[in-house]
UniProtKB/TrEMBL annotation:
It holds the Pfam family Abhydrolase_6. This is Alpha/beta fold family hydrolase. GO terms for molecular function: hydrolase activity. SUPFAM superfamilies: alpha/beta-Hydrolases. Residues 14-163 form the AB hydrolase-1 domain. It comes from Ruminiclostridium cellobioparum subsp. termitidis CT1112. Coiled coil: none annotated. Keywords: Hydrolase. The keyword Hydrolase applies. It comes from the Bacteria.
Amino acid sequence: MIFKETPNKQMPTIILLHGGGLSSWSLNSIVEQLQSDFHIITPIIDGHGEDGDEEFISIQDCARKLIEYIDTNCNSQVFAMGGLSIGAQIVTEVLSQREKITDYAIIESVLVYPIRGTTALTVPVYKLFYGLIKKKWFAGMQAKTLCVPLDMFEQYYQDSLKISRQSLINITLSNGNYNLNECIADTKTKVLIIVGENEVGIMKKSARLLHDKIPGSVLYTAPGMKHGELSLKYPLKYVDLLKSFFCK
């Protein structure tokens, strides 16, 4: 993991993790709005963007690295932590392993139900079609699916050229096989769970399960939104939601 941060370390720290196939650049608009009041850290998940040379192993491995970073650089606790998609899975895993590592957590578009057949299909399919991710037309289709704004597409495409086949396979396997750790029920963190109204059923089911498992959590369904669309395309609304949550 590569950890990028704003210079104002004296302010409360918020850690934000990007989604799969993205990188810290996808959070720039959110960082710009928050950095006057907070110290923002935006880790680049293994296998992505500038950290493309570091093979992604698993969600649990990334959670371990994030906890080690917080222990070493943030006195073992931060003000808030947020994540999108696989970034949200990493945040969820961190909360499962540490009861009070952050005061607040924002978990957007998280999958906590294993998808049947992920292992059987992923390896042969990705070995066969890995070359497609290097094609701009295919990247355009993927970017649309991921709700990547048009002004971010070129950066998205350039980063897609850096991901290794093994990292891509590991990311897909870890994401599709992730199973919610029952220890999440012990967290002392105030948790906001976000899911888009127009996300597929398993994502809504995941959001409800997480809400049921975490005492006192808040479940917000973003009207008319698809997977990750709230933070990626509407950063102003996302930040307003965060600030409102912090005041509760």
